[in-house]
Specification:
The structure is a homotetramer of 311-residue chains. Chain A is mainly beta and 311 residues long. The first copy, chain A, has two domains: 217 residues, Sandwich (Jelly Rolls); 73 residues, Endonuclease I-creI (Roll). Chain A is built from two helices and 23 strands. A nine-stranded mixed β-sheet of chain A has the order 1-4-17-6-15-18-19-21-20. In chain A, strands 3-5-16-11-14-13 form a six-stranded mixed β-sheet, with no helix packed on it. In chain A, strand 18 and strand 19 form a beta hairpin. The first copy, chain A, is globular, with a radius of gyration of 19 Å. The two termini of chain A are 26 Å apart. At the C-D interface, strand 9, strand 10, helix 1, helix 2 and strand 20 of C face strand 9, strand 10, helix 1, helix 2 and strand 20 of D.
Chain lengths: 311, 311, 311, 311
């Protein structure tokens, strides 16, 4: 069953909030998300800033110990203007270099503005000194923050991320990706928001090109399947997501979850799983800006003679 | 001028050792490297294990404050057998998962053996339980450890890395890559070794497929050009390399060096360099096993309307 | 005004829960806390495990941007038995040493039991192999987890800590200490629990000697006084508390907050504050076990010719 | 046997340099150290800056796998003037606070000068704005950098530290302390220097009050005793020293070495050693400024019913 859902309220935590819609495994939903500053498709601010979430969506029958599969089937910026940070975050450069960053002057606009042309698939910076002309980049729309209600009745700020997902800001979360979340509470309670028209690895400027979006997603419930961290896949890769600080710990979470996946679901003996990952694993950086950083561990579905495809 | 150099001694530190050959800017050298365990093309151990280096090569005219450009023009495994670790390193999984790693039994061989077929471009694991048949991977030969003598008369173990290069274990250091090193001492004193037939990101098993190699490299001296960390480029990317623990600090070094490169060499004003990196930067993981980890910051040479090509 | 409060419900998050009592600035409260496992003075488990909190207490007139001063005037174990971890946490030893830790056998009790003698001020381990007799330690009762509701309507697990306080497990939080918390929400909403009869630095075993307690505290509201992290003082020291991972970041938070305190409240010019801290600062470790670690920056109130005492 | 040794050359790495004196187990040496900037008792710069070392001293009979015991029997500043940093290091404050540090102006002296009065046991800051009078602190002389030659023929900068000791900047390294170093090379090759008249925890300003010193030390060789990291003791504590970045890893090294010490040398079974450390361990911060940080794990020699004293 397909639902068209128009949000009327938003949350800046991911938690056990009153659901906005109850849906079933197999259903799809078309909805909208506001940008990180709470602005909608018209550019008007309609809710408090700070990654406001659309949702939560209650998935009938979901309970602790299940897995929620989410397909992002459509992810489209729905307006022609976005904004981004003008300065890399102080935590991603050498401490002694921090004063050399281009700190905005007191009277200067804090954000850079981009013209987004959805038909042409481009974002064009509206101002820049040294490029002597336009800085034009190709769109790669992605979802910065989404996930399910965390355990223990927690309500976790959408500024950060953990086992439940959240503000991961990973470029790989784009159209046609599949993501799996551990279910920590009855109904799973899926939230989504924080669309980016485009973003570099690490979200090093503290933002992508922040924009409101039209999103369609489909959910499927995998009963009795327990996972520890978000997982995902596309045609070419399976991947696991670790959210923590420092990066070292995020890497440990993602790597361990991949070992569990290969051993428990794909039937590798532990030693072969270790040997294979040692020579074939890939890593990608989600955000390195939020309180928790995001590191992604990827395994190619087809590598040499190995096929990571379940029957 | 081209030199054919056959090494007769090796070093397990990178330092101000007596040069084995003096060469000039513009010269190329064809030589060989032993594997990490000190074994040569015949498989015989001819020197102490621990990433023994071929070199150092003294570059005439090089001095503190210059940059040494090195082109890796040929990088070929020169025997048909390699070895790799059988277990991911304990530091890359969750601490509580460490006892679940496949620790080798007391009477078990510590290394996995691989059959390397250079003509077919494959490495085949000689033993494995669960793959029910061969695990065969495609070769991607790379150099794990190379660099120049560090400052202050230091002699730094080839187990680790720093501003001078060293044991970076980055998959991108393969044939046809160009690398730039800061020169810290008279003659630069270039060392190289630790070839891998193949390696996953992070060298998570503590090794690639370790193998001896035939290597050809070309040096060029850039007088009076000062850089802070290793840099490199290929047809598609420029990149900078940070070597430190934790990964957060390695990222800071690489990111800062990229900012300096864009601003000082490509003429970007600081704010535009920051905005551009924020939306277009990429990161890749060198090793996450050695005392210092390696993180690589990459910028595409052509991204949207921007071209990072010097005239 | 003094209140005697007998709790009837507990929370395992610190958040904007319904207050259990409304009190005024200047009031004191005597109450009880259950241990980390939810057991009360009789040893009976009366609520869910995981650092259940007594409270929250609503302080009349408190609002965002104020500071809440809390004096811990009495802190007394109220039963004669406590428990502790039997093994150091895997994250505080070298990764390769983790398998050598004394992992409990499948049929072994997970916790060590201690006889607590309040009159004699001792805790005696009820079992041990190698000490050939009793292991008896002196009590130093402390409060592991307390704080105010965090910002943005968050409800944060009592397993961790942040700007609002929480599970800091710092040995210095004992009788006669004064602690200051930033107020993030109307009424401040003070929670407390997780008493320890005794604890080593770092809570390296994942627990102190966990025990239920009788606690008396007094609150005072400092209107319009904004601080960023918990602060505290006793007769000899002022101190600031940073809660984050890794320890490096916890140290940055605590050190920065101490600089702000010296400069903004004690009237030091920045350079003198920096010079003085450089030669006189002390650090102590709260927990190094929870998701966020705790590091404490201390300045002696009297150091050489300097007196950090406000008139 | 006692030696009076007057140095005539200095090293800014710790390595397998030509020994300046050969001594025997049981011998003591009285010598001098220059300050971090290479200045001697007269204040004259006589060697290159950067923690120049007196030594190395060759201990007859020492070899790989032994332990070198060093008693610091006398540690006395030998001039009346010292200097310190004027600003906390950028890496020890929040990244976004870095521009607010009191960065010295272009025409400003980089170092604060202190008048050191050895008879009165005080250091007095020669300039300060806000203290309206003198800032006078009590001397606590200590040795910042000392250790033995590292393994593999390395020569490691005296800016940093590792298993061999080096630039640890721990306030506990003062008169009447005993330190144990693992021996990595024939003769052990003991180096020392970098005296501080006084220092805060963490050497957060990048320096203590840097000064030249008269030092007397005594060596004793413990044949066949293998340790992994520097250890030490005084009347009240035994302690172990971890040198690494980040602090988390330094803590892991020190904690693991303490477990080994308690289990292998004091005869505790592993579980009792873990339980005891959990409730009685203490930690102190050496430097948090150098490339490798230093964290110290301490156990009281007498804690409750336990005595850590070998017969």
């Amino acid at each position: 069953m397909h639902h068209d859902f128009k949000p009327s309220k938003y949350f800046t935590t991911i938690g056990s909030h009153e659901p906005v819609l109850r849906i079933s495994s197999g259903d799809s939903v078309s909805t909208t998300t506001v940008d990180a500053a709470g602005c909608d498709a018209t550019g008007e601010q309609i809710t408090e800033r700070g990654n406001p979430m659309t949702g939560p969506f209650y998935i009938e029958g979901a309970d602790v110990g299940d897995t929620l599969k989410v397909d992002l089937t459509q992810l489209r910026p729905n307006r022609n203007q976005g904004y981004s940070g003008k300065m890399l975050a102080p935590n991603v450069v050498d401490p002694e270099y921090v004063p050399n960053l281009p700190w905005p002057k007191a009277d200067e606009a804090r954000w850079a503005q981009w013209q987004v042309d959805i038909a042409a698939n481009t974002a064009t910076l509206l101002e820049t000194e040294s490029l002597k002309g336009s800085l034009e980049l190709t769109l790669e729309p992605m979802l910065g923050c989404f996930g399910v209600a965390p355990p223990r009745g927690q309500a976790i700020s959408t500024a950060t991320s953990a086992e439940h997902g959240g503000n991961m800001d990973y470029r790989g979360f784009k159209e046609n990706i599949t993501v799996y979340f551990p279910v920590f509470t009855e109904g799973a309670l899926f939230h989504l928001g924080d669309g980016h028209a485009l973003q570099g690895d690490g979200e090093m400027a503290g933002t992508g090109i922040e924009i409101s979006m039209d999103v369609t997603f489909k959910v499927e419930l995998i009963k009795g399947k327990e996972i520890s961290w978000p997982r995902g896949e596309n045609d070419d890769f399976i991947f696991t997501v670790g959210n923590a600080r420092p990066l070292d710990q995020a890497t440990q979470h993602a790597t361990t979850e991949m070992l569990r996946w290969l051993i428990n679901d794909f039937g590798f003996d532990p030693q072969t799983a270790n040997i294979l990952m040692g020579q074939a694993v890939r890593y990608e950086l989600g955000n390195m800006f939020d309180p928790a950083y995001t590191f992604v561990c990827k395994m190619p579905k087809r590598v040499g003679s190995v096929k990571l495809v379940k029957d």
